[in-house]
Fold these 2 entries.
Entry 1:
Amino acid sequence: MSLTPPDLGKPYSTEADRADAREALLLYWVAIESLIKLAKQPASQWSDQQKSLFPSPSAQGGPPEPPDRRLQRWLDIYSDEINLVRDVRSRLVHGGTLVTDPELRGAVYLARHVVSSAMGVLPSQAEPVWARNTLAQAAAS
Amino acid sequence: MTDGDQGAAHAKTGRMSGSAKVRLNITIVLVLGSLALVWVSFLTPYLHTCDDQVARVGRLALVQSCRPLSVTDPPVLAMLIAAGLLLFSLFPDLSALEIFGVFRLERQLKEQAEEQEKRHGDTMDAIHRLEVSQKVSQQLQVNVVAEKTAETAARVGELAALQDEKREHFESDAS
């Protein structure tokens, strides 16, 4: 079901690989920010498009879980991951301290999992560009 | 405080001690005196300086040749040098006094040189201390960064290992 955790200690073999990972992290972060923004928005203000982004699983015979509640749970459960991705992304963008390859590799891995969990898809399906486009547009609508 | 120092201090403040005034007066007298000597020597037959010279005519082997005094002659020069020395004592900031082509008096500014040397030493010490402190600070910063990145990498590893479990927990809570 999930992606195998990468060997976090392994450095990127080329600069291009690292640049791709950097780009992926930035895209995931846009998606995560959109999710956070949506989670803070009252459910009454959610558009149908926004609601349709999230699955509504339910217990057998029970009512489906509202998407806003799902997103709130997501925010609680994945707060550590979100904070860590935010930290690494900030350092990458603002260039304060060097981001090591293991940090970057791990942050991308976590970001992919965090986004895929929120949207109820497999991590392998949560490609960075797809996640960014889907969520950024939905959050803006 | 010596007289010289007092003179210097007063010279700086624009006031002069009695001793400084006397020295200034002597200086003026010496300068004017040397000028007067040269003047009188030029305009009158007195105060001439004479040298023996080999005669080209006549029976005598040597004849006396006299001429007016100039500033390079010992009496005038001595007076000017004395005036220069007095000026030095009156104005400690003077480092040299020169009448071009005649004489030049230079003061060895030992104190100033020592002070400058001391200042240079102090500056070098301060630079050295600054460099050391910068190196220590940089090293500390490097250590902090290394600790932080190692900490983050370790935390990433921990969280990565928990993802399957978290996902399961997240999905199961929904139902």
Note: The mean pLDDT of chain B is 81.
Entry 2:
Amino acid sequence: MAAGKEIKSQIGSIKNTQKITSAMEMVAASKMRRAQDRMAASQPYAGQIRRVVSHISQANPEYRHDYQIDREVKRIGYIVVTSDRGLCGGLNSNLFRRVLQEVRQWRDQGVSVAFCALGTKGSVFFRKYGGDLLAANRNLGDAPEASELIGSVNVMLEAFDNGEIDRLDLVYNEFVNTMSQKPIVRQLLPLPEEDVDQDTSSSQEAASASKGGWGYVYEPDAQSLLDKLLVRYVESQVYQAVVENIASEQAARMIAMKNATDNAGDIIDDLQLQYNKARQAAITQEISEIVGGAAAV
Amino acid sequence: MATMQCNIVSAERNIFAGEVERVVAISVLGELGILRGHEPTLTELKPGPVRIIHDGGEEEVFFVSGGFLEVQPNMVIVLADSADRARDLDAAEAEKARDEARQALQGKSGEMDYQQALAEIEAATARLRTLSQLRNRRGNQ
């Protein structure tokens, strides 16, 4: 049996680890709340743009932007949103598994794939995995600004404009609730129909508008406005995904650290028991030695 | 005077929401003043101030780095850009993202080496953990 002193020092080191993990748990919990706030705050912008885009589309049915036209897919682009740091459970590995699954399916159909990695873990992954990495963002931090993502999104949009990719998908962790985050894949380009065309069908406003047409005054003109709005729309979708992924990351880290803290507690209990046994054994042995010695005298 | 609803939103947050009397903004075609009942309009904004005049003449100024302005009969919506979006700036940002991708693949920065080492350690510890779990299970049988 291990000596009492060794067990004691092991308990000490695990207690230190436990302190760290429980501190990380609390930090993650507060960061998660802030990320959730940012998630909520970014929604109105995307909603408004979506509404405006569908107005214009309805008012100008003859004009279709490239982003709204489906074409044969020969090459597909993925924007993969990951966290910067680890220690967040299986969050990133689940996401990568999902991406690889998708990629395999496309490759079976003879479609090649290109990537854009947002978040440090993504860059590291693609370095090891290989693959065609067109753009990357590292060290996004806890509160990235929408402007930091413009570059990467732009690269992918350019690739789409030039016909290098025919479809653009966005992969990130959906924040279902604190206990569960789910990797999801969403089509960004060409814009899914329901995103722009049917969005307003629910609102009364649109119903009356489609009858009378939107008597809008466009400055400078509808098409160039639409072009710019669509770019902003895609950017805001990516930004939302990044913010949501951060909320997911913090939630996953909170749960992972909570489990680690609980596990450390279990291990400490086990070790404490071992320590007590060892101590008891040593005392018993000493007594029996003394008794044995006294009997011999 | 009659008021209308005004919302200013950026990709990151709601900047302003409330009842206002007048909105003055600078569109690509010139300065634009909007009162209640203005014709429905959709226009692109230049970087510059958006002035909001509250009921009673109190004025509030927000700076936007471009964006869009939509006027509905009793509502004004400003979709503000969160950063300056000149064409060459966009191109520079794109170049930066490409650079990062190249760096990530070639891995010339020390930080990437560190991150990769970290990933490998994680994978190795996961393997060890599985092995010891397997061994324990076999030991218990």
Note: Chain A touches chain B through 53 residues (CB under 8 Å).
